[in-house]
Structures are given as C-alpha cells and as structure tokens.
TrEMBL record:
One annotated GO molecular function: ATP binding
Naturally occurring in which organism (per UniProt): Linnemannia elongata AG-77
InterPro entries: Actin, Actin_CS, ATPase_NBD
Cellular component aspect of the GO annotation: Ino80 complex; NuA4 histone acetyltransferase complex; Swr1 complex
Biased composition regions of type Polar residues, renumbered to the chain: 59-76
Region Disordered, annotated ranges: 45-98
PANTHER family: ACTIN
PROSITE patterns the UniProt entry points to: ACTINS_2
Protein name, entry field: Actin/actin-like protein
Amino acid sequence: MGTYGGDEVAALVLSVGHTWTQAGYAGEDTPKSIFPTSVGWVDLPAEADQGDDADNSEDTQMQDVTQDGASASDSNHIGKKDADGGDVAPQPVGAGVVPSKKKITKRGKYYVGDGEISCWRPDMEIKSPMKDGLVEDWDALEQIWDHAFLKRLRCDPTEHPLIITESAWNTREIREKLTELAFEKYNFPAFFVAKDAVMTAFAAGRPHALVVDSGGDMTSVVPVYDGYVLRKGIMRQSLGGDVLSDQVLQQFKANDVEVTPQYLIAKKSPVIVGQKPNVVLRDRPATPSFHKMMQMRVLHDFKESVCQVAESTYNEQNINTRPQKPYELPDGYNFNFGAERFKVPEIMFNPKEFLKNPTPEQENFVGLPKLIFNSAQSCDIDFRPTLFGNVVLTGGNTLFPGFADRLHWELNSIPHSYKVKLHAPGNTVERKCGSWLGGSIMASLGTFHQLWISRKEYDETGSSIVNKKCV
C-alpha cells in the first residue's frame, strides 16, 4: 500500500515494454499480470454513410476523410467490446465534422492478451505500440492500458494513483501525451513517470548503477548516479532477443528445416532424430505478421530450452566437447544440438563474427562488454569506479545460462583499472521485471506521496508539469 493524500491507497504500477506488459499493485513483489504488448487488429469492410444516420455500432471507428486523407482520432472510448469479445477501436470526437458530409466508416476490432492474439484469425495483423523504447502507436497503447486496468487488474482507475516506467531516452512530447492520457481519459487522481533504469537500480538496492537491459528489440546500457540518469552515458543498439530468434530461423532454413507454428499442425507422427517431419497441416491462411509472431514463439522456446553462453571466449574445439541437447519442433522434427546452441547467444558478445547476413545497421553493432565499457567511459572520471562496481543486469535476454559469468569475464578482460562487480538476480521474475519491481517498491514508500503529480496540479499547469516533477 502506498500513501497518497494522507490515506493508504493501492497505487497501480504499469511497465509497457516492446515484448511484455507488466501490471500490478505497489508493494507487491511480482506483477499481478504479465501479457504480450503486441495487439491484434482485424480490418472489416469499409462502409459509406450519410452523417448522423450512420450505423455507429460498438465495433466501428468513424474517420473524417479530408482532401489529404487525414483522419481524426480520439481517446474517449474505454472498455467497449464487440460481440466476439474484441476490444473496439477508439472513436473520434467529431471535431470539425459536418454532419451532412458523407463519411467513410472504418470498421475494425482490437484483440489484446495472450489468448486473444494467439487465436488464429485469417486477416488479423499483429503490431506492437512500442519501437526502440518509444510509443509509436497510441491507439494500440490505449488498448493495452484498457486491457491492463479493466480486464486484468479489474480496478477503477479513478480510485488509484498510477506510476508507469519509461525509457531513459523518452521524449518530452511522449511524456506529456502519457500524462494527458492518464488524466483526461482514465481520470487517475495522481500520476508519476519513472525512468526504467532508475527503477531497476532501485529494485537492486543501489542508488548508483550501470544498468544493462537486454530485451526483445534492443539492448541498452544506462548509467544511474544518485537516482538520476547520466544521459551522456546512454548507449543502445537494436540487438536483442528478436535478432537472435531471426538468426535461429536463418540457421534452420540453411539446414532445410521449416519452422512450422502450432496453429498450422493438425496431426503429427514420431520420427527418428534428424528425419523430415511426418505431419498433416491445416489449411489456415494467415497474415505475415501473425505467422511471424507464432514462429518467434517457437524460436523463443528453443532459445530458452537449448541455448547457452560459453563461460569464456568462444572456442569451437572446446564447445564440441560439451554435451548436446535434444529439441523437438512443433511438427515433430527433432535434433541434438551441439555447437549451434552456443553460437546464437554468442552474437551478444561478438556480433561481427557470429551475426550472419547482417543488415547495414547490424554491421555497426558492437559486443555487449564494449557497449558497457563505452557507457562508463562517457561519464565523469570520478563516477567510473562506482559504476563499474555496480553493474546491474535486467531483461529476459540476460537469462541464458552462463550469461552473467561470461559478461564478468569479458569486462575484466578489457584493460582498465576498475574493479567490476555484477548484480544479476537469480530469480527469473526479478530479472525480467526489474523496472516494475522498482516502481512497486518506490510507490509503496510513505515518503513518495509528495512526488505524485496530482489532478489539481495537472489542471493548473497542464501536461508540461511532468517534465518538472518527473526527472
């Protein structure tokens, strides 16, 4: 329980990442709900209507069509559901709409949550509202918030303060828009935006830290000193779990192995190791984005089950002496994986050698130890010993067996005079949900009540107050 306005209240804590969204109550040690950030969207046929006589059903999104094709948007449509259980696209308020003008009615449904987006639908597109740690699709983000508050936590937003986490490089415009969303649409009584790196350091019990966060779409290194982000030391690159999964997919294709997701499999029979699968497939046409998502789930499970990081510099001769691990794909194909299972996570440490068919952007990737070293070296020389002594690991991509030991070995191999200490929580949930856990701890402190942005302050100052109170 946190303190707000002198009363004990349960503040809500929300962390929206590229791959997973975590939601729960302050003061608890794990999120109440963790679900995919990606949402499904199904377009329905557009219809023409005449102004106010239009059929304005719950699964309809009205868009005013102008000469340049621009359309209005809206955020005042909480919790509406269609007959099939899908979340409804937001409806514009109609500012500047001439009732007698013909409009185009764009119909569509949102699907949010693991069960909804995993269910095969022929025309469902999958998209994430986040890219490079920043909000890219606001309509999809609202659906995530609706799902978290109304379906998962089943709470009334007007009765709880809200704290959310953000990337250390978030923009002023996005922060202000998040503040508007919290107060204007959901009517939260109080709101706060916290840097995810600061919250991760807070969860680890450290006021100073070099926070290494490796997730689905990117890896970042953020120096934190005295609870503040040192912006000049922020280093990031788009090398994360998605790139590793794509490399596994390329590896399978090079060996003439097709990764068939579960939704396509009707029946399969056992086969011996290395043989082609004996499988009967369903006729289920799907969008490329849905098929890719389901393939990535198989590859994610492969990485978790099989892959491992070598404890020291990769040596093919030594790796070949390690025991192999068996793995079976959903279609029944199975194989014993040896050196291959070490090469995939090795990309994090030596991308130039192990990244196959890199894009122009990927050719500039550097190994994680070098990224960490560059981040620390970009900070004031007086801060460096403290930062090297408090390297904190977070993110699901750091959970490969041997990852922390290898990183510690590599950092000590780089010529410098600093003592390196790594903090890597052994608990899987704590490692994946570091920023959420820090927000939960901070919002539950009695001294935190003075930091909330209240509704009164928002009404008096506007959304710009977030840049003054949440630094």
